[in-house]
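In this section we walk through a basic example: taking a raw amino acid sequence and producing a predicted 3D structure, encoded as C-alpha cells. The instruction is simple. Fold the sequence below.
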Amino acid sequence: MINISSYKKETGSRKNILRLILKDFTPYDYETKSPILQNSKVYFIFCLKNNQEIYINDVEYKSRYEEEKGENLKRFLKAAQKELNFVRIRKRNFQSSYWYSNQESDS
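The resulting C-alpha cell sequence is shown next.
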C-alpha cells in the first residue's frame, strides 16, 4: 500500500506524486499508422513502484477502428508521456503494445 499523504508532503502536487509512485505503463500502440494495426480499444497497465498494477480496459470488444476514440487515446498517451517524462522503451513481447518508462528506471 502506498501512503499518498507522505508523498504529498514531499512534493506538494499530484503530478509529482504520480512521478514518484509510477514505475512504467503499457498501452496498445495508438501511434501506429498501419490501418491493420490501428486500435481504438482502451488498454493500459500502470505499474507502481511497489509492484502493484492498475489495469484500465474496455469492457466491450469492437474490432472496428473508431477514429475519434483512437485520436483521443493517442492524445492521452502523448499527454501521459509528457507529464510523466516517460519515453517509449521497447515493444512488449509480440503484442502491438509498447512499454513506457523514464530512462532512470530502465537501467
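Looking at the output, two observations stand out. The first helix runs from residue 4 to 11. Residues 86 and 101 are 5 Å apart (CA to CA). In the next section we compare this with other chains.
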